[in-house]
Amino acid sequence: MVTVADFSIEHETGAKYIAGVDEAGRGPLCGPVVAAAVIFPNRDIEIPVAIRDSKKMSAHQRAIAYDWITKNTIWATGECSPSEIDELNILWASMCAMERAVAGLAKRPDTCLIDGNRVPKNLTGTAVIKGDAKSLSIAAASIIAKETRDKIMHELSAQFPEYGWDKNAGYPTAEHLRAIEKYGVTPHHRKTFGPVRNARKTSNES
User: Fold this and answer.
1) What CATH class does 8-160 carry?
2) 15-49 per-position pLDDT tens digit
3) How far are the Cα atoms of 12, 23, 68, 118, 203 from residue 168, in angstroms, in the given order?
4) How far from each other are the two terminal CA atoms of the chain, in whole angstroms?
5) Nearest of 203, 202, 206, 183 to residue 30 by alpha carbon
6) What does pTM read for this prediction?
7) What would the pLDDT profile of 146-203 be if each residue is shown by its tens digit?
8) 126, containing H or E segment
9) Domain boundaries of the chain, sorted by first residue
């Protein structure tokens, strides 16, 4: 059975203003972790674009959805930098980015739907496992977070073209790992992540 994202979970809450919250960028070796929060002020609105888990969409589909979402919803993003990730660890940095995204909304939500199995301590709401495949609000947030982070990584790639961040988004691809070995670690790398930590250790030993 294929789960299709809709507003069923939103309706079950009984709340009017519900923020779907998701993040992008837990796994990469560099760049920020970015979260987004999205409120559909009118859940009866006709949605002419596909909105689903951003990982299931092509770059073209995400771009079209991003454009529609940003024009028809209340949304905001929040992020934690690589240094904050190193200080907090990626789990708590992701929680922090989610809190920042919700805090940035122009409208205070009555409740939140959080993708995953944990609600950030400063938010009120419900955790929804695989929520980006079940809730349209969370799916929309996943698209905003992914598109926002990809744009950041494209901009950083222009400064550090050797690492291929415009293509690998900072994930530990073979190309990225070879670049770290050849060119070293940048200020945008997460120094507590294994491959980066090992590269810095090797560099210090040589």
Assistant:
1) alpha beta
2) 999 999 999 999 999 999 999 999 999 999 999 99
3) 38, 17, 26, 28, 24
4) 54
5) 183
6) 0.94
7) 999 999 999 999 999 999 999 999 999 999 999 999 999 999 999 999 999 998 776 5
8) strand 125-128
9) 8-160
DSSP assignment of the chain equals -----BSHHHHHHT-SSEEEEEEE-SS-SBS-EEEEEEE-S-TTS---S--S-GGGS-HHHHHHHHHHHHHHSEEEEEEE-HHHHHHH-HHHHHHHHHHHHHHT-SS--SEEEEESS---TT--EEEETTGGGTBHHHHHHHHHHHHHHHHHHHHHHHH-GGG-HHHHTT---HHHHHHHHHH---TTB-TTSHHHHHHHHHHHH-
Half-sphere exposure of 113 (CA within 13 A, CB side): 33
Q: Phi and psi at residue 16, in whole multiples of 5°?
A: -90, -55
